[in-house]
Amino acid sequence: MDAETPLLFTEDDWNEAVPLVVANMTAHLAARRAPVFFDRGDHGEGWGSGGFIALGDRTFVLTNEHVAAARSPTQPLASQLSGQDILWRFTGDHAHYPAPLDLAVLPVPKTVWHSTHDSAPIEVDDIVIGHHPVPGELLALSGFAGERVGFHFESLISEATCSVAREVPLPPDARFDPRYHFGVDYRPDLATQVIGAKGLPVPPGLSGSIVWDCRFVAAKMAGEPWTPALAQVTGVVWGWPSDLGCLVATRAEYVDRFCSAWSDRSAFSPEAPTQSRGRGDQGRFLRSSALRSCSSYQPSMKPLATNRSTSVAGGVRRRRPAAISPNNSSAPARTVRVSRNALRLRRYSASIRGLSKLLTSLIHR
Q1: Which residue segment(s) compose the domain that 242 sits in?
Q2: Spatial distance between the Cα atoms of 293 and 295, rounded to a whole number of angstroms
Q3: Position 365 in a domain
Q4: How many distinct structural domains can be found in the chain?
Q5: Three-class SS of the chain
Q6: pLDDT tens track of the chain, all 365 residues?
Q7: Is residue 34 one of the residues assigned to a domain?
Q8: What are the φ and ψ backbone dihedral angles of 117, each rounded to 5 degrees?
Q9: Is position 318 within any domain?
Q10: Can you give the CATH number for the domain in which 78 is found?
Q11: Is residue 98 a part of any domain in this protein?
Q12: Where is this region: Disordered (predicted)?
């Protein structure tokens, strides 16, 4: 790179900014993340993670198919809303799509969602059309690792983890396909702690965690101030190759299609209470402590050698303009951006046409 070309960030600026991004994303995602527990009748047990999402007039937990698949008439799954100390069971049917996408939505009882709490749903518009973060962008995820969830003194103690890192190449493995998946750096032994003192946990239990494109680097490229409200959903974690220091997530274009297929349809049966094996109604079965957080970021995130004039190529929301605009706000610049997005859409439509047909057939069964 030309020595006279200014850096996007100086090293001091970067080192000062990243912990603030981590802290802000931790607070922003606290209302949107969702734990998934096994309901063992007289106690709970950590199982997976997800995020609250609004589809039509209902609220669901977006997670993995392999997380939701553990649910059965004899084995209920449960969750918890932010700001509450009670757990409740998922009731009614859920929808899922198996590997390589590994996606599912679990229905939140309406009476539970309409109670007093601090949780907030992801909107379908918050899911980026395709996973294409700008080079060096920060990705955030928040979930509930199994080693941070435990039943103690008749209460379920749950501590959420927020990790901020960059995308990394997928390791060579027949289970991973860059058409459907991407990698996120995750090395607990090298992470820098921002909130709490325990460091990053091992990943089991983080399955279903929502991955967010922070759009921090994109905002800097556009010369605009950054807030966590700019972040967009760019994937869902489902895998962990334990010896390779990364998490594997399903790309946003497939998450978008899966969720959009259900957002305007009544594809789920009416709520039918499951057999209650604990105290309270709506499957509430035990007390829990308030959800807590710890946050870290990965060591490879050094200042970017990127020209400040680089145009923003971040995600685009549907039905409303993107929060970050290009540096040049003239009409030609906007026209170029729309053209690029149109090309992306054509490319995505070819790769997910089969998924769309299958989802349509499932809906009309």
Answers
A1: 11-297
A2: 7
A3: no
A4: 1
A5: CCCCCCCCCCHHHHHHHHHHHHHHHHHHHHCCEEEEEEECCCCEEEEEEEEEEEECCEEEEEECHHHHCCCECCECEEECCCCCCECEECCCCCEEECCCCCEEEEECCHHHHCCCCCCCCECHHHECCCCCCCCCCCEEEEECCHHHEEEECCEEEEEEEEEEECEECCCCCCCCCCCCEEEEECCCCCCEEEECCCCCCCCCCCCCCEEEECCHHHHHHHCCCCCHHHCEEEEEEEECCCCCCEEEEEEHHHHHHHHHHHHCCCCCCCCCCCCCCCCCCCCCCCEECCCEEEEEECCCCCCCCCCCCCCCCCCCCCCCCCCCCCCCCCHHHHHHHHHHHHHHHHHHHHHHHHHHHHHHHHHCC
A6: 445 556 788 888 998 999 999 999 999 999 999 999 999 887 778 999 999 999 988 999 999 999 999 999 999 999 999 999 888 999 888 899 999 999 999 999 999 999 999 999 999 999 999 999 999 999 999 999 988 887 765 677 778 899 999 999 999 999 999 999 999 999 988 888 888 777 788 889 999 999 999 999 999 999 999 999 999 999 999 999 877 789 999 999 999 999 988 775 544 444 433 322 222 233 333 333 334 444 445 444 443 333 332 223 333 333 332 223 223 222 222 222 333 343 344 444 444 445 554 444 444 44
A7: yes
A8: -160, 175
A9: no
A10: 2.40.10
A11: yes
A12: 296-335
Structure tokens at 360: 């349509």
The token pair at 289 is: 């402590």
